[in-house]
Design brief:
2 domains; 12% strand; 147 residues; mainly alpha; 63% helix; elongated; single chain; three-stranded antiparallel sheet
């Protein structure tokens, strides 16, 4: 029973704390960038900077802002993906604990729990589940099946 929840626990603690800390750092850097842009505009409007220098520095700050925003958005999107995987893992675990396995193929179950399959070779197929698990299946090919 204890080992069944290990994957779910690993998903819960995967790196959310690190990601959230980095997202907070990026928000702080974005706020500092915004302050620098305001200071730059203030210096320009008071005549301390010429137009060429202002444009160059403004472009650098804008590029930095774009890079920081992109990184923050990527982290937040990744966190949403982890939440989706956690929910899928919990649903799969609940189903496996509640239902007896059957040897018949069930397309609805495949659609519900599997994301996609990867054919690595003629003998190996990897089933990638929505929760992130990868199940490797080795096929045995009989010589009569090839004819």
């Amino acid at each position: 029973m204890k080992s069944r929840g290990r994957y779910i626990e690993a998903l819960k603690s995967s790196s959310k704390e690190v990601d959230l800390k980095r997202a907070d750092e990026l928000n702080t850097l974005l706020n500092e960038n915004s302050d620098r842009q305001k200071n730059l505009l203030d210096l320009f409007s008071k005549g301390y900077l010429d137009g060429g220098m202002y444009r160059k520095m403004q472009e650098e700050l804008t590029a930095e802002c774009d890079r920081l925003s992109s990184e923050r958005d990527s982290i937040l999107h990744s966190s949403d993906d982890d939440t989706d995987k956690l929910l899928a893992a919990e649903q799969l675990l609940h189903y496996c604990m509640a239902v007896l396995p059957t040897p018949e193929f069930n397309a609805k179950l495949v659609e519900r729990f599997m994301d996609h399959a990867v054919v690595e070779s003629r003998e190996v197929i990897v089933f990638v589940m929505r929760c992130g698990l990868k199940l490797r299946e080795r096929l045995t090919i009989k010589s009569q099946d090839l004819n």
